[in-house]
## 1
Amino acid sequence: MGLNNPVPASLGLQALFGGTFDPIHYGHLRPVEMLAKTTGLAQVILLPNHVPPHRPQPEASAQQRVAMVELAIQNNPLFSLDTRELARETPSYTLDTLRELRHQLGHQQPLAFIIGQDSLLSINTWYQWEELLQNCHLLVCARPGYATRFAQPEMQQWLETHQTRDPAQLSVQPHGLIFLADTPLINISATEIRNRLHAGDSCADLLPPAVLRYIRQHSLYQD
């Protein structure tokens, strides 16, 4: 499983988008494509997550999850793939990956990390979360059913201090901003897809055809 390195730093605003991708589906891809149009993203680097032992393991193997991502983004120049987290033997923290990329891309390259509203509202539970904005911007996609404000006043103040409503600023400075994106609310989950596949129901409207063919060819998510 090789490492697909991000494109050179001269090509504009880049963003990381991590996930288990078990399997990758339109709920991952379409909001990010809309986000790219809104913010001027030149490249979205998909980052399949290494799942730690204390969490439920994906049904598909790491190699299968990578293969499905490759099929989902083929012929789409917006996306690239980075498998560095899958190569690690130790727990994989977002901050470690961002530091690696920051070192690789240089201190002046605009770099963002894409998360959902649910992740933003729990970000103060992340490993060394206070240092995230020293390495990247945060691009936040709306999620169905989640609050739009922090319950803790100090966290709401942190958000308002760093929030920008001007997406052009994301390409001007290398890190430090939070942008709340008005992305489409696509209520699709990988859990729902796996359950439908286990039940023999159609998922043709939920994930790219090439991914669905791969799932069928390899008998994934079947009882």
## 2
Amino acid sequence: MPDLEVAFDAAGLVPCVMQDWRTGEVLTLAYMNAEALRKTQETGEIHFFSRSRNELWHKGATSGNVQKVKALRLDCDRDAVVALVEPAGPACHTGARTCFHNGELTPKAPYEVLPALQRTIAERAASRPDGSWTAKLLADPRLAGEKVEEEAEEVVRAVREESDERVANEAADVLYHLSVLLNTRGLTLADAEQILDERSR
């Protein structure tokens, strides 16, 4: 990783917001000193400085839930860092996926919806509960593919003949069934998003 010219504060620290690389969800806020930043860049895994313990902290060293760094970004004043990571497990010491789980929004913010859906699909793939439509689709990729075709036709017809609300509903059905179909191949919508990014360069 390239060296970053960070403007540390008087205590030698800089705040670091850790975000999920694939979803953009905020996972935690912690602090880095120069050594933590250097270790992060050298190892490719997040290191923080614990203000309460006054020591360097390798995120996930004890739990195994390391956070592999995909990119580090600085704000315009160079006094705050965003770390985009691939989490190996929950980011919070409580076992929650994110430290920001108190006061969860209902409904979710728009960018949270598809990642939450894909986590639910992954859970169904692991547990295969009886009576679950998602589990049934996961067990039958051909059926899942047929549903994607059916729902795609319905959204096209809705655009041609129906209200905006119906278009949005049918589009939601496409996204759900496409997410399930992708899961049968070990893929997610983020894999398709990466291709779109590569095509736009």
## 3
Amino acid sequence: MADYRGVLFDFSGTLFRLEPDPAWFAGLVDADGRPLDDAAQQELLYRMTVPVGVPVPMDGQALRTWHARDLSSAHHRDAYLYVLEHSGVADDAERRRLYGEFSDPLNWSIYPDTAAVLRSVREAGLKVGVLSNIGYDIRPAFERAGIADLVDAFVLSFEVGHMKPDVEIFRIASAALGLAPEQVLMVGDSAEADGASTAIGCGFAQVEPLPVAQRPDGLVTAVRSAGAPA
């Protein structure tokens, strides 16, 4: 078993997943007045949750804001309002309403094995951290699920001014657990964003960001396969 003393977990697609209520899209129409069909809604979800890359054509200030989206709440809001506007949501009030739904931490669904894995890691004597590229506070999602007390440190990009794959955020997160990077396992769904942790010596375990109902034990499998208790 690897000699890890702490585990950092990504949030989106790892511990929780955003699974929109179909009611969010009721009445939405494109610039031609046509309702957004199922395919358009699924594409919109992808664009609003993709961890890396640029989901719609951008340049100039829009592109700069996108690349800084997880460094402040204002950039996050403006970047995703732009994505919504260029994804067929024609009405400004509807874009703001929909952004509010997407950015509400209480709208996220927890994976079936999240609580058990966090508890097992803590009971084995390891530290637990949550490290997320995000533009708003996700702690309420953990509080509602009754697992906030299982997390030793939340390291959120908009609070610390760095975002994955910048290795500085992994240094910050490891230090928040009181550990050296080589003592930490990073668990996440993006080889590019989360896997960048290996550059400073962290271990890395990847999970697939499948729908919650389709991934009953993916987190526990990934953590165990990396040699950490789960």
## 4
Amino acid sequence: MASIGEGTQKKRKLTDVEEIEIDVSAPEPPSKKALRKAKKAATVKPSESTTETEAVAAVEKPTTAPQKRSDHGVWIGNLAFSVTKDDLRTFFTSNCSFADTTITRIHMPKGAERFGKSQNKGFAYVDFSTQKATEEAIGLSEQLLTGRRVLIKDAKSFAGRPDKPKEDGQTGSAASGHAPSKRIFVGNLGFDATKEAIEEHFAQCGTVANVHVATFQDSGKCKGYAWVVFEDLAAAEAAVKGYVLVKEDDEEEEEEDESEPEERKRPRKPRQRKIWVNFLLGRRLRMEFAEDATTRYKKRFGKDGEGKKNNNSETGDAEAGEFEATEEQPRQARPPRAKQAKPEYTRYDQDTVQKLSGAIVESKGKKTTFD
């Protein structure tokens, strides 16, 4: 039995639409990753082999060939952060004889913005087309630019830069020539620094065994340096670095982790924070590994110490040679040194000596009376 209103429904007629033609032999369009790489490289050019999508991307952002570095260039430093490329170009063209076209490239790295204005990092590279222009630009070193004396040198010259450490993890104090030890030297201390304050300050690194402060003899105040001895080598190394790592207490996080199911729990790395120990009483300290006390004592008073050398130089070469020859003998077996006789002074006669010493001198003469 037919339902009511079945015959009353009318079918919709489709409008005539042009069929879409698909070329199966066409190459596969590039992916988004390929388009990003092409956009980053900026080397896409429309050609027969490129697809229509690549050609459109190339047309939307035209490629700009990067400037090539010249073999003739200078490095300019000590710039003010507000200096621009135009300021550098004007500085060179106004103080040199070459034209503006001689400057082929100015590379000025940008730093962090301040007060909404872009700033440079304090240095720049300027390339020239000739070596003569480079030499002329180097001659402008120590000249004023926006109130600062700039430093200009050859871009290929690395003189004046600190040498890189040979081994990774080498501390700056190793440059002093002393091996890591429990005894460190602390410099740039204030005159008001005390032994108790220094010991309390460096106790953050580890247990302090001894503190020796150099003081003035009259006032007893600190001379500006001291020696600190730790019980552990790790504490001394942390003090030389200038900071110590301390684990933070994560009690709240542990309570939250207990409420979570065991499946979702993940091992977390312990949080650490730095405690800086390179400042004391508002002064930046200078720490480095000190020479071991035993080694220092041997250098000064040992077999070949400084004190022995000074004694040998005073007594003469003959006695020094005799001392070296009898060094292996025990100290008691050495012959005693002969006492030198004191020289007799014959500069004054006996009468003059008596007068100088204040002794009473008997008169030798006749008494003369006058009428």
